[in-house]
Fold this sequence. Notes:
By secondary structure, the chain is mostly helical. Helix content is about 60%, strand content about 0%.
Amino acid sequence: MDGKTTIKYLQHYIKQKDHNPELLKDYFLKLSEEVGELSRAMRKGLKAPNTKDIKGTIDEEVWDVIYYAIAIANIYDIDLEQVIKTKSEMNQSRYPSSVMFEENR
């Protein structure tokens, strides 16, 4: 293992920790709330001074947004790694770029 965290692992981790399909609407409300908190942190320029002191910072709020987005994907049994690949291909055809998505990276 190279010490990197994969999307597949994040999905598995969040599913094991927090998978309550009956709370789908609550997850969406939390996602919306976290987007607002991210907006506030960005507006105030609250970047963490180091990797340990992230409370209330952009760093923390980005993770919270990712967490709830993945929790919602898990409820719908969405394989995010596959969706990323498919969506990247769709975007490449609509918005050609010299930067190509590479699998297994």
